[in-house]
């Protein structure tokens, strides 16, 4: 499963032979079974599959939200289970996440400025890390706002006053504020309309190009993956069924499930007229 | 009734003339609330009035078992019970809208004064019970509502046990608890009084018994709210910042649990008011609940109506206050602009 032919630069993060099981009564249910995914530095990796295929489980394991039943989670080549909790936390900080529903992932009680500053403040409070001054935090928040192309006038807005796309920009700015080397995006555009989707995907591409961010993008939409990803991994029923460079997987799918997902996505794209080409064009 | 109802909006009218749109909206809302309140109270006493007559002829009950038919006839005239029922009702309603309930039949003082004098005790009992309810149910609910770190949202064996205990306590009626508490603390150990509500130490047993009526339910509401927050995208993202589980609990879980907590505790205050009727009986407390029970037994309709009206007002006030409180706790409920 691991020898995928993906160009293996230095690994930013990876899961190796990851299995996660849940007990349901007496039975053990596999949410993920022997999954190996490498996220090389500076590359965009797409993870695709139907609902319940195990994408979220992989993502949760990577973020430390789920304990692997077996297998290894690595960040920057270091197996997290072999280092102290403090080191593991410092490594985990290199991964930040953008969730599907920005309204649910932003605290409604906090302004845009507070939301973006929160990870910086959290890091400042951590033992052993350098505390940031208020001014430095404010400066960084301003930079981030700029980076996600939000006007400074939104700084003191609350999530309820923003559009879906603006909220997702805030979520991205928040994730980038601590300068992670990996951004995990869990269905980042599923809750958004077509135009906003194009904007957000365009923004992710720019960020990738500007700061060399490695991105793991989890989606059930082939057109989203097709637009962004360098490498593609396809999951079905908790297993990885196909992995490889995006062009070869998308143009010459080896596994029937991959072919099925591509066909389904083509059908939908033709149906509502929002193909990947169109989305790309709109993003420019 | 119609006259009174049409009077109410004009009372709110001067405020409506102000130019400030916010003040105008508040005045309008307040006006609607007042009309609702009057309608609600009229409905309440109307039901009460006719329900009281189902009990039997009030004149016969008032006269007692040894009265002659002449006595009964005389009582009927004294209390205006000789006119047709509908006239009696309309008379009562007119008096009611002037907030005049007449004299209590048994105590011979204005019924409203009598009921108002008892209200303080009952309110104190219910407020202490609410404080105990929130103070006990919140930490327990938070505890059983979620683990920490990688185990967030999952429950270890101890959490399961506590959760089971909460479920079990929901099945034990508060009046049984009251009797148990009296047996243990007042009779066996003799550390707390079993009767009265005049000293701080006499507050403990009745308030704890009454809180029992609400706390298990509140704990479960807090639990499910906490679980929801723990498994939310908000918390997942915060975990990625490297926030400790304790920080996440204090900064994210607790504030987001506040809204269902306030809403439920507010509704439960009404529940506690009705529970107070029984608790006051069990502990011999001279509160509004006891007044209601005695009034029903003695066919003392003025006291009954005054007591029920006061409780209605309290319920209305508590609902309004918790409405405001959870608007403060949840910015999503505030209107823009």
What does this protein structure show overall?
The complex is a heterodimer of chains A (284) and B (337). Chain A is built from 11 helices and 10 strands. With 284 residues, chain A is of the alpha/beta class. A 6-stranded mixed beta sheet of chain A has the order 6-7-8-3-9-10, with helices on both faces. Chain A has a 4-stranded antiparallel beta sheet with strand order 2-1-4-5. Chain B is built from 14 helices and no strands. Chain B has helices spanning 2-16, 21-54, 58-63, 69-78, 85-97, 111-144, 157-170, 174-188, 200-212, 215-230, 233-241, 245-283, 288-297, 301-329. Chain B is flat. Chain B starts with a helix and ends in an 8-residue tail after the last helix. The model of chain B is unreliable at 1-16 and 149-153 (pLDDT under 50). Chains A and B meet through strand 6, helix 4 and helix 6 of A and helix 11 and helix 12 of B.
Largest sheet of chain A: 6 strands, mixed
Please write the string of helix (H) and strand (E) elements of chain A.
Answer: EEEHEEHEHHHHEHEHEEHHH
Count of beta strands of chain B: 0
Shape of chain A: globular
Strand order of the largest sheet of chain A: 6-7-8-3-9-10
Strand content of chain B: under 5%
Order of helices and strands of chain B: HHHHHHHHHHHHHH
Give start-end ranges of low-pLDDT stretches of chain B.
1-16, 149-153
Q: Which term fits the overall shape of chain B?
A: flat
Structural class of chain A: alpha/beta
Q: Tell me about the largest β-sheet of chain B.
A: none
Quaternary organisation of the protein chains: heterodimer
- Computed structural class of chain B: mainly alpha
Low-confidence spans of chain A: pLDDT under 50, at least 5 residues? 1-9, 278-284
Beta-strand residue fraction of chain A = 15-25%
Q: If you compute it from the alpha carbons, what radius of gyration of chain B comes out, rounded to the nearest whole angstrom?
A: 25 Å
Determine the N-to-C terminus distance of chain B: 38 Å
Helix count of chain B? 14
The proportion of residues forming helix of chain A, as a percent range, comes to: 40-55%
């Amino acid at each position: 499963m691991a020898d995928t032919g993906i160009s293996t630069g230095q690994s930013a993060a990876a899961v190796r032979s990851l299995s996660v099981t849940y007990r349901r009564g007496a039975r053990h249910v596999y949410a993920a079974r022997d999954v190996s995914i490498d996220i090389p530095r500076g590359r965009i990796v797409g993870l695709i599959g139907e609902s319940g295929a195990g994408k979220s489980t992989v993502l949760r394991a990577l973020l430390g939200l789920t304990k692997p039943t077996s297998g290894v989670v690595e960040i920057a080549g270091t197996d997290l289970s072999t280092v102290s909790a403090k080191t593991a936390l410092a490594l985990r900080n290199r991964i930040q996440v953008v969730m599907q529903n920005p309204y649910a992932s932003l605290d409604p009680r906090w302004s845009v400025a507070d939301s973006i500053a929160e990870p910086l403040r959290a890091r400042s409070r951590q033992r052993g890390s350098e505390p940031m001054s208020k001014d430095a935090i404010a400066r960084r928040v301003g930079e981030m706002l700029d980076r996600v192309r939000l006007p400074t006038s939104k700084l003191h807005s609350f999530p309820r006053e923003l559009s879906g796309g603006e909220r997702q920009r805030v979520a991205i700015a928040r994730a980038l504020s601590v300068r992670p080397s990996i951004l995990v995006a869990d269905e980042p555009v599923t809750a958004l309309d077509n135009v906003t989707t194009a904007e957000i995907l365009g923004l992710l591409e720019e960020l990738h190009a500007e700061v060399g961010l490695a991105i793991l993008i989890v989606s059930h939409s082939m057109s989203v993956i097709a637009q962004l990803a360098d490498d593609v991994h396809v999951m079905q029923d908790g297993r990885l069924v196909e992995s490889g460079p995006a062009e070869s997987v998308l143009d010459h799918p080896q596994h029937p499930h991959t072919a099925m997902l591509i066909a389904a996505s083509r059908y939908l794209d033709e149906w509502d007229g929002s193909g990947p080409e169109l989305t790309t064009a709109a993003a420019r | 009734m119609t006259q009174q109802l049409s009077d109410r909006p004009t009372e709110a009218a001067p405020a409506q003339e102000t130019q400030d749109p916010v003040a105008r909206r508040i005045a309008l809302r307040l006006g609607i609330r007042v009309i609702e309140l009057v309608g609600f109270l009229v409905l309440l006493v109307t039901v009460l009035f006719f329900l009281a007559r189902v009990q039997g002829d009030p004149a016969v009950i008032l006269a007692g078992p040894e009265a002659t038919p002449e006595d009964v006839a005389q009582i009927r005239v004294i209390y205006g019970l000789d006119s047709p029922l509908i006239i009696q009702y309309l008379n009562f309603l007119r008096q009611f809208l002037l907030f005049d309930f007449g004299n209590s039949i048994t105590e011979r003082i204005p019924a409203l004064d009598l009921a108002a004098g008892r209200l303080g005790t009952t309110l104190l009992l219910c407020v202490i019970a609410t404080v105990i309810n929130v103070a006990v149910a919140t930490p327990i609910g938070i505890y059983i509502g979620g683990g920490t770190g990688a185990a967030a949202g999952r429950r270890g064996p101890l959490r399961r046990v506590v959760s089971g205990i909460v479920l079990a306590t929901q099945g034990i009626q508060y009046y049984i608890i009251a009797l148990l508490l009296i047996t243990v603390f007042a009779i066996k150990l003799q550390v707390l009084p079993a009767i009265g509500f005049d000293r701080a130490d006499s507050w403990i047993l009745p308030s704890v018994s009454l809180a029992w009526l609400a706390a298990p339910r509140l704990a479960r509401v807090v639990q499910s709210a906490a679980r929801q927050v723990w498994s939310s995208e908000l918390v997942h993202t915060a975990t990625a910042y490297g926030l400790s589980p304790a920080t996440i609990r204090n900064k994210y879980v607790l504030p987001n649990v506040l809204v269902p907590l306030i809403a439920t505790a507010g509704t439960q205050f009404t529940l506690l008011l009705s529970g107070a009727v029984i608790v006051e009986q069990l502990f011999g407390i001279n509160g509004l609940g006891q007044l209601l029970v005695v009034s029903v037994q003695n066919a003392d309709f003025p006291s009954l109506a005054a007591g029920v009206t006061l409780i209605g007002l309290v319920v209305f006030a508590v609902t309004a206050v918790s409405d405001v409180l959870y608007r403060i706790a949840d910015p999503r409920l505030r209107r823009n602009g």
